[in-house]
Amino acid sequence: MSGSRGASCDVRAISRRAVLGRLGAGALAATLAPNLIVAGGGEKPVVVGGGDHAYEVVRGWGKLPDGVEYGNTHGVQVDSQGLVLVHNTSKDSVCIFDPDGKFIKSWGEAYADGAHGFQLVREGKDEFLYLALTGQHIVVKTTLDGDVVWKLDFPRECDAYEGKPDRYVPTNIAIAPKGDFYIADGYGLSWVHQYDRNAKYIRSWGGAGKEPGKMNCPHGIWVDTRGPTPEVVVADRSNVRLQYFSLDGKHLRFVVDELRHPCHFDQRGGELLIPDLHGRVTIFNKENRLVTHLGDNADPSRRGRNDLPPEQWVEGQFVAPHAACWDRDGNIYVAEWVRVGRVTKLRKVG
Length: 350
Fold this sequence. Notes:
Elements lengths: L10 E2 L3 H10 L2 H4 L5 E2 L8 E4 L2 E5 L15 E6 L5 E5 L5 E4 L5 E5 L7 E9 L2 E8 L4 E6 L4 E5 L19 E4 L5 E4 L6 E5 L5 E6 L11 E7 L6 E6 L4 E5 L5 E5 L10 E3 L2 E6 L3 E5 L5 E5 L26 E6 L5 E5 L5 E7 L2
């Protein structure tokens, strides 16, 4: 899960007044490259991106109370009230914060083992969470307070597993507009499994490989509704590409540019948000062309490093983004795969 590919970015310091002034004048886009990291010291802000996609790093967001510690922070979601839910491998597996970063409560000790995929879905007036638990080889649907709706065992209907549940290691879940959902077996046999809204098995497709329809660690999965027809997009991480399928599993196309090791997705309007394990967060437009890279780590040796200690982190530069999502105001939350946990709020200023 480690490794990196080289990239560099320009770094310089400017004041908050200068940032906001330039934004107000519409000049920031002309003066900052889209992937520029503006790093400040002391009380100066750290701004990533530029133009219409400039975000200020919110210092100290999401402080944990005494007695609560993160493990690896694997997932982050925002509910309809703006509350931020963080999934991690600790006894407080789901930590809940208000938008300003005030800790509200936690739950989920039963899900600490293999806490990984984490997807919020709205069903009418209700909201639910889907948890893909790599250490337990199951997917669980819960309420936002942790009450279990159902637990889904490994897909016995798929002959590839030969009836052996330990071959199934689900990493993420995607939900289609009509309620079907898709599970990516990213750490197992590299299959995708489709179920209806009642968790009844429909079909499977994939398997390990590089050819169309095959995958190598389908780590993340999403139903992309930006086009005329919903499509399933897979973060085919070890193949360093996105792979698109129809809702019934037919291969459609690849996206290969501007990616390192894509982990998962979120969507807002015509844009797709992609946390990239190797040190940056990427935004694509409706045509899946690059809008910007955020927080691109200037040091290739520090990308994708689960063991990198906090004293070596640089504010405004990511180490190992594993999940990311927008809130209703266009701010971005990023959860990173580091041993002690790291969650960053990027406040939209552009």
